[in-house]
Design goal:
Chain lengths: 395, 367
């Protein structure tokens, strides 16, 4: 056990620091608060710059424009990005999930065609997985693709699609064989979002914003060469995308949580509770300390999981608790914020009295989604029960 | 950066597991807990042979000279086996305190016999108000003598010498010295005996000042949390095994999600406590600036988690979990004792608040 950086990790960090110091745009604070629709071109430009410096996808193999970074180096990357408060990258799903899946399953022609434009944010990607009747039970999805000559004809509906409104391409899971058991008749298609018959509608959430979309496919023609992986092997391809989703996200989230708890502690000195600053109220101190501790434990669980993967090559059991842990922790953190702010907690960005321009009232609502998206807490507990503890399958 | 165990650390842990499984199986735990002191001379001699009593201490005093990480790996396995007797008291409590508080002469006199296995010891800390803050102690020495009462002193009856923490330093008392009376306290956990120790104008020897005590207690805390993690792991293992085997409504109860989810939460709590204490031990070993916070995070989290893991384990077992025959209650009672020892979760949350909230306030004022 040695949590100090080794020579290679230090070199990686130092090189990155120098690059970030020079290249992080100074005017980002002016853009940060704007709606994503407005700031999106800005984020695209920032990602292009990162790609030019070969920093857009450090985890990817060198031959595909990455740095073949170890998990620890990836953790360092996100830590440094957060430390300097760098903007996020526009093509989040392309870089984090879909690119790695294409690298794992794609043909050479597909890799050549898609990978460079994912890196440069020239083409933005979205995921077409969940459907109105297929959430946790993803394999029961109904969007169908029929082969006609050298094209698939796609019909169906997808939901909860992030970046749908801006995406150029979609990693779409479809049913290609309805006659076999549900997991065995799925195929992944790479679909051009500009194809005739694709319709994107905003899906309004309880927060009032439309972070997600609904996608409708009506007789959409997809060339046969856009199959990712093998026909009817789509379940394995989709699962590998979900693994990327659950694996790497925690490291990035920790830094956001850390910023939030630091900010709450700062605010606790001005917000009054029972006639004194919240920072002096015994109960609020207990609650803030609990959050602070759990956020640190989230970091430590992540580091242990990374070490396990590095030494054994396979994700260890620690990794499976991460999604469950962070999503429920984030809800607890937002609740503590609400208790501290009292009636001010409910004010949205439209009210000038709102704390931090309403990010906390937004966060309180948004975190309800955390225990649902990317695998509900119930599904996560099932996964731990089945695959980690070896309990009999319940479905 | 490597958060896994090194080969030699893993080996030490595996060997400890094998050793305790062979030398201290549950039948032996149950036999010892029914005895007056839960101490077994033969078991002690074998632990000494393994180097367990000197694991953390310098070779100069006959120790093995390993670090805090190795200490907690050993304690984790001791906790998993629910080893009765004064291993924790002698090594993690008294030994560490001598190591951090005493001068060369004191170490030679008191640490060397712990390493060699000749002596067992413990530390008398809590007073009647049961507050762990060093500044709140009332007992104070007067002309080399102590008067007053210490409570919840683990394994005092088998100690060859007692460390006593007072307002003005750490002292060594001979249990046979005039004015000392010891009485067992009737606690839930029979595997770790607790005593009240009364001093009446008892002559004592000064070991050192309070300066190193806070750090010594933090090492003891990490060791205790590691023990708790071992107990949580064992509780989880027993429970999962039972959920697979026990059938109701024609299926093993582990098929039902209500049961699976209890087990999944036990797993999350156990692994999280383990991450926290492994880091705390490393931070203590490296003297990182956040070591005290890291220890409090671990003790705070484990104090709640160990209890919850026990609650869930008993619940999954149903009626069986409520019996004397099942081993779960033995772990459950140890968990309760450890939960409050060296500060419960409320105590450590407040300590984290002082170290994090108040300190950042101080630094932002000076900035």
């Amino acid at each position: 056990m040695d949590l100090n950086l080794n020579a290679e990790e230090r070199q990686f960090r130092d090189e990155l620091r120098v690059w970030l110091e020079i290249n992080v745009p100074k005017d980002w604070p002016e853009w940060r608060e704007k709606p994503l629709e407005e700031s999106f071109p800005y984020l695209r430009a920032w990602q292009r710059k990162l790609d030019e410096g070969r920093w857009a996808a450090v985890s990817w193999p060198k031959e595909y424009g990455g740095r073949s970074a170890t998990l620890m180096q990836q953790a360092i990357f996100w830590e440094e990005m957060a430390r300097i408060q760098a903007p996020s990258m526009a093509n989040a799903l392309g870089l984090g999930l879909i690119g790695p899946t294409i690298i794992a399953y794609g043909t050479e022609a597909q890799k050549k065609r898609f990978i460079p434009k994912i890196l440069s944010a020239e083409e933005i990607w979205c995921q077409g997985f969940s459907e109105p009747n297929a959430g946790s039970d993803l394999a029961s999805l109904q969007t169908e693709a029929r082969l006609e000559g050298d094209h698939y004809i796609v019909n169906g509906q997808k939901v909860w699609t992030s970046f749908g409104w801006v995406a150029d391409w979609c990693e779409l899971v479809v049913r290609t064989d309805p006659t076999v058991p549900k997991h065995k008749g799925l195929t992944v298609l790479l679909v051009d979002m500009k194809s005739a018959g694709v319709e994107v509608r905003p899906l309004r959430q309880m927060t009032g914003e439309s972070e997600f979309n609904e996608l409708f496919f009506r007789d959409v023609r997809v060339p046969r060469e856009n199959i990712l992986g093998k026909v009817n092997d789509g379940w394995n391809v989709a699962i590998s995308t979900l693994m990327f989703e659950r694996g790497s996200y925690g490291a990035r989230l920790h830094l956001l949580f850390k910023r939030n708890i630091d900010r709450l502690i700062e605010l606790s000195r001005t917000f009054q509770r029972n006639g004194q600053p919240a920072a002096k109220d015994p109960l609020m101190r207990q609650k803030l300390a609990q959050c602070y501790a759990e956020i640190e434990i989230m970091r430590l669980n992540q580091l242990r999981a990374f070490s396990r993967i590095t030494s054994t090559g396979v994700p260890g059991p620690e990794g499976s608790i991460q999604k469950l842990f962070w999503s429920e922790l984030n809800q607890r953190l937002q609740q503590v914020a609400q208790e501290m702010f009292g009636p001010y907690g409910q004010l949205t960005s439209e009210d000038s009295r709102a704390v931090d321009n309403g990010i906390w009232s937004y966060g309180y609502l948004r975190t309800r989604g955390n225990t649902i998206e990317a695998g509900t807490s119930e599904v996560q507990r099932n996964i731990i029960g089945h695959f980690v503890l070896g309990l009999p399958r319940s479905y | 950066m490597e958060f896994g165990l090194s080969e030699s650390q893993q080996l030490l842990k595996d060997n400890a597991r094998k050793f305790f499984a062979g030398e201290c199986p549950m039948e032996e735990v149950r036999r010892l807990m029914e005895t007056e002191t839960a101490y077994d001379r033969g078991l002690w001699a074998k632990m000494v042979e393994q180097g367990y009593t000197g694991v953390l201490f310098s070779e100069e005093w006959g120790g093995v000279g390993l670090g805090e990480v190795e200490l907690i790996l050993l304690m984790e396995e001791a906790g998993r086996a629910l080893v009765p007797g004064p291993l924790f008291s002698t090594v993690a409590l008294a030994g560490v305190m001598i190591d951090r508080v005493a001068g060369l002469e004191g170490k030679k006199r008191y640490l060397a016999p712990i390493c060699s296995g000749e002596a067992r010891s413990t530390a008398a800390i809590l007073e009647t108000h049961a507050n762990w803050d060093l500044t709140d102690f009332e007992m104070v020495s007067s002309h080399g003598r102590l008067t007053g009462e210490k409570l919840f002193v683990p394994d005092a009856k088998v100690a060859d010498f007692l460390l006593v923490v007072t307002r003005d330093g750490v002292f060594v008392a001979d249990p046979k010295a005039p004015g000392i009376t010891m009485e067992p306290m009737a606690v839930m956990d029979q595997t770790r005996k607790m005593y009240s120790v009364r001093f009446s104008n008892t002559p004592v020897e000064r070991l050192g000042s309070l300066t190193g005590v806070a750090q010594a207690l933090d090492v003891a805390r990490a060791a205790l949390v590691a023990e708790m993690v071992g107990g949580m792991q064992r509780t989880l293992d027993i429970t999962v095994e039972y959920a697979k085997m026990r059938k109701q409504f024609g299926k093993s109860i582990g098929t039902y999600q209500a049961v699976q989810h209890q087990c999944a939460d036990m797993y999350l709590e156990t692994e999280s406590a383990r991450s926290a204490v492994y880091y705390a031990a490393w931070a203590l070993e490296q003297h990182t600036p956040d070591a005290a916070v890291a220890v409090s995070i671990a003790k705070m989290y484990a104090s709640d988690a160990a209890r919850m893991v026990g609650n869930r384990g008993i619940q999954v077992h149903g009626g069986m979990g409520f019996t004397w025959e099942n081993d779960l209650h033995l772990y459950y009672k140890r968990a309760k004792a450890s939960e409050t020892a060296l500060g419960d979760s409320t105590y450590h949350r407040e300590r984290i608040a002082r170290l994090v909230i108040d300190r950042s306030a101080a630094s932002s004022q000076t900035a």
